[in-house]
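Posted in: Protein Modeling Q&A

I'm a second-year student putting together a small comparison for a lab meeting, and my supervisor asked me to include a predicted structure for XRE family transcriptional regulator. I've never done this before, so apologies if this is the wrong subforum. The sequence is pasted below exactly as I got it from our records. If anyone can share the structure token output, I'd also love a short note on what stands out.
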Amino acid sequence: MNWKTMIADLSSRGWTQARIAEALGKRHQSWVADIARGRYKDLKWHDGELLRKLHLSVMSKEA
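Accepted answer (user: helix_wrangler)
Welcome! Here is the predicted structure, written out as tokens:
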């Protein structure tokens, strides 16, 4: 699964870009928006791991 899809999944569960940014360690909303637009094909390991864990946590609660 790619980063853009993870952001889309979170958004479909009612998470705003600002809320995602806050959950990822006080990032800027614009950084999340850039991911959602596909600007980043790869993230730093730490950032990608935080997003992956957030995605897993939110999606598992919805299952």
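A couple of things worth pointing out for your meeting: Residues 3-62 form one domain. The chain has a mean pLDDT of 93.
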